[in-house]
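User: I'm putting together a teaching handout on how multi-component assemblies are represented. Below are the sequence lines for each component of a complex, exactly as they appear in our records. Could you produce the 3D structure of the whole assembly as structure tokens, so the students can see both representations side by side? Please keep the chain order the same as the input.
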Amino acid sequence: MDKIRINLLPPELKETEKKHNKLPILNLISLGVLVLSVVITAGVLFWSFYENQKYNNTTKEYEKLKKEISGKQKTELLNIFIKERVKNIKTLLSQDSPQPKLLNLVYNLAQTNASITQIRVDAKANLLLSGQSPTLPQARKFLVDIIDPTKNEGYFSKIMAEKFSKNSSGSYSFDLSIAFASGSAKIAKKNK
Amino acid sequence: MNFQEVLKNPLFIKYKTQIVSGLIVGVCLCLLAFIVVPQVTKTLAKRNQTGQLEEKVLNMGQKLSVLNNINIEEYQTYANTALVILPEDKSLPESIGYLSKLLVANQLTLNNISFSLPDNSQQIKSFTNVLEVQGENTDIRKFIDDLKSAPRIFKVKSVELTSNNTPVTIAEINLLAYFNDLPTSLGPPEQKIDKVNAQDIELLNNYKNQVGIFPEVTTTNEVNVQSGKSDPFN
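Assistant: Of course. Below is the structure of the complete assembly, with chains in the same order as your input.
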């Protein structure tokens, strides 16, 4: 014969029991979250403390080194001074002053063909020269040489004869105005 | 209503699990908001500062090691050499001295010498020495060439030679002489130091060796002092 099962308990009790079963899980989760939060907070605080300590130690070391370096101020100044001077000396030595070269060049070109009575090389290395030659072929030779780029080494970009005359003594006088070829002009000329 | 009463309150009893969980979540949120987040931000910034400071300390350590290896006496000699080549001021007596020696060596007569005001527009300052000399043309040109071997750096700015068919040539030579102020300040202590290298020393020594009339540097008890000049660092 079949047994008959009858649940006489009120249905609310079953619902409450279900709720009671779920509640410890919620509490456990909450507790877990709390523990996790506390652990994270503790970790962060420890990390913060460690970083602070590290910062303080580095600062101490920085101050110590700063003091030691300031004690070597004279040595540092000497080093900076020498370094800067050498740099400036190098700069000055690298700046070419063409005036002496041009002067020698003109006198070398003149040699026996002409005597230079006056020569001026200005700050831009442009030349003004006055000279004389005993004969016309010698004067011509000097003028041809001075305008020849192979002989003037490409230093002159423009040569103007401002005066050419025969003196009472039979010699020939001339005044020349010579423009200095700056770097690019000189190179261009050499390439040709 | 005290705490005991709250605990016995039927509403509390009914919802105590939710209330406790809520409180726990609240505490967690407070921890995160008021401790974890600010501390993490602060610590990250501190960590960054420490990193920068460590880099400075590293540079300073290297700098200190370089400075400790510098021989002050040797460097003082280099500084004196550099001061002769490129003085700190116009140094007219020295300038006249070098030029006079070169003029005498080339058998030239100095008729007049004058000096312009300094040109302070450039980093390396300069002034013009105007020399009026007379002598043989070749000697004048040799003098101009020999200026390269003067202890101080001179550059020919302009030159005018007049001979008028006589053996004596009169010349007006404009020479630029240079000078440069001393450094007055140091960089921050952590700034890397660019030590004087072998090339720098070679340049100074070569210059000194190629010049025959380089002035002797006198030595006092403590500091080497260039003749006629004050020690730039004392």
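A couple of points students might notice: Strands of chain A lie at 115-121, 127-133, 156-166, 172-180. The longest strand of chain A covers residues 156-166.
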